[in-house]
Amino acid sequence: MKIRKNPKKNRTRHAIPVVILSTVLLFTMSVFYIDSTSSSAAGTDHLFLPDSTVTNTASDDSTNEGSDNSTDEDGTTEYLVTTEYPDEPGKAPELASNYAIVLDANTGNILYQKNAFDKQYPASITKIMTFLLAIENTKLTDTVTMSHDAVFGIDRGSSHIGLDEGEQISMEDALYGMMLESANEVAWGIGEFVSGGSIEDFAKMMNERAVKLGCLGTHFVNANGLPDENHYTTCYDMALITKACLKHDEFRKITGTRNHVIGPTNICEEERQLWQHCKMTNPDSKYYYEYCEGGKTGYTNDALNTLVTWSKKGDTELICVLMNCNGAANTYTDSKAIYEYCFRNYSLQTPLADYTFDSTQTSQTLDYLNSYYKTDSGSDITLQIDKDYKLNFNKNDDIKKLTYSIEYNKEPVKDGDTYTVGHLILSYGGNMIGTTDLTVTGYNPDGKQISSNNTEHAADATVAASAAKKKLSIHPLWIILAVLLLLAVLFVAYLIHIQKARKHQRALQAARKKQYEERRRQLQETFDNDLDE
């Protein structure tokens, strides 16, 4: 007898692999989607990595990590190059660098920025922070002794000046070695000396100092910038760090030096010649820029080329930070082009000369102080800013279109009868271009004390109000995970249903078999009885 197949059972067998295949396909698509959205979004907390498929044919690029790859004058790249517009002096150049900023070294104003708040690998420009901590915590006459870790903890193919374990040099020579030749073992040795311990202790000092400077997206794990996925910063943060360094004459002197000699040491009898890597300060280089005062280069395979320079023309001094640039030559042409654009188009203005605070700003500031001091003081406060605040503003823009907002500190800073409560933020076209301290006088915290519960409610209200101002957004990852979870639940429910159906079918088959056997037994008995008769 021909057995008829159950079509429902066949459909079940086919449905299972289809569901599994659909789930896998959706998950794969989600991975590619997340990767693409992460690499294109600006202003997020993602770490934006360079495209490893880009081909770099610049002859001045070294494949050794930690090399500043600026040993050759000639450099070309197959892709982006600096593009200027001489017929349109008010138009900013297009840069080869993917991340850039120009900051006024005196006022802190942002004159130009391109993805300046996105996290990137800095490479050897990290050493600017190492210099800052060294100059703030040591003397130039201090002696730095190279440890085993400092000498052998780096890739010997990276930048170094050949110091040996136990070798001693002065802090001044160490700073020259680190900033001119970008010596990685020297940076390590400086870090250990400053922290009085390990390089991990020094990295903690680096991160704490970065926070005090107002850095928004920086995390360091070493003193030299050699590759680590947890070692990153932003162009804006590096500009702030450089701005702090420029307050020290020793920094200007060392980084502006073309050549320095380290004499014989306790181990090496020969002199060591040190040469500046940044070509913008070298009159013999085609990349020389007459207004450039100093700079620090950087390169690793992951970071690509990075460059920090500072230039002064007249009374205006600017800091330029470039990151993730394909080719050292392009960092020099980018820097010169954007400097020329800024010097040509920006001039100092005093936009706050006639600025006044409205009643809403005054009321919000009083609420901020009362919330912090847990009181309901009705003080008649006065908000104050520097009316002589200078802003480098683009002459092609309308200064009347500046917008202003208050950003409060986590807690006020009291100095006598004056409270520093935050900053007045100046923005143009939605981009922050300047900031100045906001202070308060006339505040008296004496008043009816508010209970902790009321304070918590007030704080919750403040947080809720702040959150309400932000656009509600759901990251695509959560949507995809929710869909996958729903599919998984439906798949499990489907399997349970199939198991129950199969169990029920087996029970029916068993019942039918039992019924058949009983019927067969009865027929057999009837047949046997008929034979007996």
Automatic annotation (TrEMBL):
Residue ranges crossing the lipid bilayer per the database entry: 477-496
Residues the record lists as binding substrate: K296
Polar residues compositional bias, start-end: 54-69
InterPro entries for the chain: Beta-lactam/transpept-like (IPR012338), Peptidase_S11 (IPR018044), Peptidase_S11_N (IPR001967)
Keyword terms, alphabetized: Carboxypeptidase, Cell shape, Cell wall biogenesis/degradation, Coiled coil, Hydrolase, Membrane, Peptidoglycan synthesis, Protease, Signal, Transmembrane, Transmembrane helix
Region (Disordered): 54-77
Residues at the catalytic site: S124, K127, S182
Coiled-coil portions: 506-533
Example of a GO MF term: serine-type D-Ala-D-Ala carboxypeptidase activity
Keyword Membrane applies: yes
GO biological process: cell wall organization; peptidoglycan biosynthetic process; proteolysis; regulation of cell shape
Organism domain of life: Bacteria
Positions of the Peptidase S11 D-alanyl-D-alanine carboxypeptidase A N-terminal domain: 91-325
SUPFAM superfamilies: beta-lactamase/transpeptidase-like (SSF56601)
Similarity comment text for this entry: Belongs to the peptidase S11 family.
PANTHER family: D-ALANYL-D-ALANINE CARBOXYPEPTIDASE, TRAFFICKING PROTEIN PARTICLE COMPLEX SUBUNIT 12
Protein name: D-alanyl-D-alanine carboxypeptidase
Native source organism of the sequence: Coprococcus hominis
